[in-house]
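Budget justification note: compute hours in this period were largely spent on complex prediction jobs such as the one shown. Inputs:
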Amino acid sequence: MNNEIDEESFESRSRLQKSFFARDAEIVAKELLGKVLVRKINNKLLKARIVETEAYYDENDPASRACKNGDLKNTMKMNAGTILVYGVHNNWLINFVTGKKGEAAAVLIRAVEPLNFDGKGNGPGLLTKSLAIDKSFHKKHIFDNQGYLDLRKDKENLDHEIVESFRIGVKKDLPKKLRFYIKGNKFISRK
DNA sequence: AGGAAGATCTACT
DNA sequence: GTAGATCTTCCTA
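Corresponding output:
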């Protein structure tokens, strides 16, 4: 695909729908694998394929920020597709709100594969640094942030096998595997 | 106003 | 494998 018209045509066909996010966090987490995060900076597009995600739920999930009252819990109840950014140990972590409005759920992006730029993607704090994602995206919607951050289907329909594991770095996990990554990908954060 | 915990990362041994 | 950096967020008072 090497002319502008094909590129434009693909771009418009490759948008995700709102209904994509309005489902259970586990489903969204799995289906986000292989999708492409697009970050626009000074009219340049940085593209990165999502290769690792985790699902988080409401106050019944001991690892979730929704266990504490406050802005993060409230944000997790917002419209599906809302961007949620929060800080841990001097790193910004990016999530997408999923499910029904009023119910707390989100998917954390844990690792990406840089497609057209140099930078690290193999960790939730590293990928936000590489893509210059910070708190300014918090509570913006993925479909309504002037294109500075977007999410697309991949051009190539790459087959991949999904591996499930328990979540990383959480003190108390649920008895269910809620971390998902693309088998064999070199950019996953940990084995 | 102050403190503790944390969905992390890096560097060192 | 372990320790320390470093700062946002939430809780307590």
